[in-house]
Design goal:
The structure is a single chain. With 404 residues, this protein is of the alpha/beta class. Helices cover 43% and strands 13% of the residues. It contains 14 helices and eleven strands. The strands form four sheets. The chain has a four-stranded parallel sheet, with helices on both faces. Helix 1 links the parallel strand 1 and strand 2. Helix 12 crosses helix 13. The longest helix is centred in the middle third of the chain and has 34 residues. 27% of the residues are buried.
Length: 404
């Protein structure tokens, strides 16, 4: 309902304008963020004569992309479908609408609302979103600044993570079969073993990898013996383990890919390797070349003999010599035609395919192999040079944190 204009001699009570509010917090740790936004929005609505009749809330959602922001997608869908029973959308500020890396994307979603006759109000901003030249310029700058903030934060976070990797601390991800995540304090004194889904609560605490239960360690070592000494394939090993009723750390049956990951991951010999895969600024996951990896060798206690690990890598590398470059690319092309996309896990699950590590060794990286068969997932290459530069700033350190 639009605001009525009383043309009689005596003005009557003004009618309120129906409004919706959109609130968003970036992480689950921002406990009171949406409440704080709603408080400012409510004050703004009272001053302007708006009645909030609908709330769209995205809790713990990044503003970098629309994906995952179900509330904002629902708001846009309601507006476009004519289901919106309001004429105004109230948002705390420009950054809560989104920190899109392309400022035009943020403008586009606002345009969709405006085209449907619904205006956007930024309640904590110092400008009126009235379509004037000054408002347009300021809003454009705010959108660009919101996106730039995320880019700068990404660089700072990556730099900090690289430093922690060099000190031997684990940065995210499950421990894997045969290993556990150990919570330690700032003096590296053990505090507790973290179960799946548990996280550290103190900012000064860190996480390292430690050997898991003895039965899991024995099974990991047995996998290496079967592969290196008995020359059994990953598929044969997985079939054997499933026949014995063994399950993975996720409680699932063993597969060729899971066995291959155990045979190729350096964490089993105590090496801390990071940035093998990038997922910066919510772009698509990208398998990085070895020169981009950040590593600390001997960062924690391994559970596999380094000689066994090296032997396993030689066997895997030897398999690639059975195929010419053309044969490997032909198989990759056939896989792409069947699946429509490629990844290391998809490759490793197939018995008649060279492993993903084989493609890395032959062509330098998985991405190079993808390019040679004409498949290139959309990605942003701009951060690569930044990452290389940042790594030059990281001093080499010993496993315990002192200069090497």
């Amino acid at each position: 309902m639009t605001q009525a204009i009383n043309s009689s001699a005596e003005p009557g009570p003004a009618q309120t304008i129906r409004a919706a509010q959109y609130v968003r917090m970036s992480t689950e740790h921002q406990k009171y963020s949406t409440e704080n936004q709603a408080e400012i929005i409510a004050r703004y609505a009272a001053q302007r004569g708006f009645e909030i009749v609908e709330t769209y809330a995205d809790n713990g959602k990044s503003g970098l992309r629309l994906d995952g922001r179900d509330a904002l997608k629902r708001l846009i869908a309601d507006v476009q479908a004519g289901r919106a029973d309001f004429k105004v959308v109230l948002v705390y500020d420009v950054s809560r609408w989104g920190r899109f890396q392309d400022a035009d994307e943020s403008a586009y979603y606002e345009f969709l609302c405006r085209e449907a006759g619904i205006s956007i109000h930024y309640c904590a901003e110092q400008f009126e979103n009235d379509g004037s030249l000054s408002a347009t310029i300021i809003k454009s700058m705010k959108r660009a600044m919101a996106g730039e903030y995320s880019r700068e934060l990404s660089v700072k976070v990556f730099t900090g993570q690289c430093r922690l990797i060099g000190l031997g601390y684990r940065q995210g991800g499950p421990a894997g079969y045969g290993l556990r995540r150990q919570l330690v304090d700032e003096q590296r004194r053990p505090k507790a073993t973290l179960l799946r889904g548990e996280h550290k609560s103190l900012q000064t605490d860190r996480v390292v990898l430690t050997p898991g239960p003895a039965e899991e360690i024995d099974l990991v070592r047995r996998i290496y013996r079967m592969f290196v000494l008995n020359r059994r394939s990953e598929r044969e090993i997985a079939t054997l383990l499933n026949g014995e009723g063994q399950v993975t750390d996720l409680g699932r049956p063993w597969t060729r890919g899971v066995v291959h990951q155990i045979l190729t991951n350096e964490k089993y010999i105590g090496n801390n390797v990071y940035n093998r895969v990038s997922f910066k600024l919510k772009k698509k996951r990208v398998a990085n070349t070895p020169d981009m990896w950040v590593r600390a060798d001997g960062a924690f206690e391994g559970i596999v003999d380094p000689d066994f690990f090296a032997a396993a890598q030689r066997i895997i590398a030897e398999r690639c010599r059975r195929y010419t470059d053309a044969e490997m690319l032909e198989r990759l092309t056939e896989l792409l035609e069947r699946r429509g996309c490629l990844s290391g896990l998809i490759i490793d699950e197939l018995e008649d395919m060279p492993s993903s590590s084989t493609y890395r060794q032959r062509f330098g990286s998985l991405m190079r192999g993808y390019e040679l068969v004409g498949w290139s997932p959309s990605r942003d290459y701009r951060y690569l040079e930044t990452n290389r530069f940042l790594r030059t700033l990281q001093p080499r350190r010993s496993p315990r944190g002192g200069p090497a």
